[in-house]
């Protein structure tokens, strides 16, 4: 229950704010103030500054580029890599016999497997759209990837409503972090418009 609440907070808030972000984007491209590099200036336009700052900096070229488009691509790469890792995690959970033997849990995991495969595809297509300068399409595809993760999480939420069966999602933290990475990638691509 607690983890569910945290997830809802982490997911719903960014989605609400994202609808307003059209207004925020009017501030234009990030401009660095003295002593501030492009990563810091860019991450200030995202909803999850710490995640943005630390994830982008885990890729060394982030600190060397002066091209916002490169940061956007890195943000998408990070989201894609995390989705792929999560898919591996789903496969590991599926190989846990006590989880796999539960018909409800295994159904949820199969859904998550499908959702994350789709999320990876959506994000790969979003990189192509970014390369083609089609920012609207990038938006749509990242948003689709975010709802894929949400659908995965919702499966477990529905499961909790089944009488006599209480199980929390083993993927809440991952779904949450994935949603933050995507939200950041979305905010960065919006700066390119
Ligand atoms: C951003 O991350 C770097 C490296 O992880 C850290 O040294 C720096 O303090 C962070 N910036 C802010 C403003 O938190
Ligand atoms: C993003 O990932 C692709 C595929 O792994 C790689 O070729 C490309 O160099 C990455 N982009 C950046 C900016 O790191
Ligand atoms: C396997 O699944 C059961 C039930 O979902 C869980 O209690 C247990 O911690 C899992 N084991 C591993 C190694 O993940």
TrEMBL record:
Signal peptide limits: 1-35
Alphabetically ordered keywords of this record: Disulfide bond, Signal
InterPro entries cross-referenced by the UniProt entry: Invertase/methylesterase_inhib (IPR035513), PCW_Enzyme_Inhibitor (IPR052421), Pectinesterase_inhib_dom (IPR006501)
This protein's encoding gene: Vigan.01G500100
A GO term for molecular function: enzyme inhibitor activity
Domain of life, per lineage: Eukaryota
Family stated for the protein in its record: Belongs to the PMEI family.
Pfam families, A to Z: PMEI
Boundaries of every Pectinesterase inhibitor domain copy: 34-188
UniProt protein name: Pectinesterase inhibitor domain-containing protein
The keyword Disulfide bond belongs to this UniProt entry's keyword annotation: yes
């Amino acid at each position: 229950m607690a983890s569910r609440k945290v997830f809802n907070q982490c997911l719903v808030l960014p989605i609400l704010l994202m609808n307003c972000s059209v207004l925020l984007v009017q501030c234009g491209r990030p401009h660095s103030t003295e002593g501030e590099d492009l990563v810091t200036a860019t991450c200030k336009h995202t909803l999850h500054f710490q995640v943005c700052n630390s994830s982008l900096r885990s890729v060394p070229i982030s600190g060397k580029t002066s091209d916002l488009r490169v940061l956007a691509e890195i943000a998408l790469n990070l989201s894609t890599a995390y989705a792929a890792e999560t898919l591996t995690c789903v496969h590991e959970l599926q190989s846990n016999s006590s989880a796999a033997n539960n018909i409800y849990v295994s159904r949820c995991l199969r859904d998550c497997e499908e959702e994350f495969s789709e999320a990876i595809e959506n994000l790969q297509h979003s990189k192509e759209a970014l390369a083609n300068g089609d920012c609207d399409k990038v938006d749509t595809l990242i948003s689709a990837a975010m709802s894929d993760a949400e659908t995965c999480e919702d499966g477990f939420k529905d499961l909790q409503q089944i009488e006599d069966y209480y199980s929390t999602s083993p993927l809440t933290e991952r779904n949450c972090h994935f949603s933050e990475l995507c939200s950041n990638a979305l905010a960065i691509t919006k700066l390119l418009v």
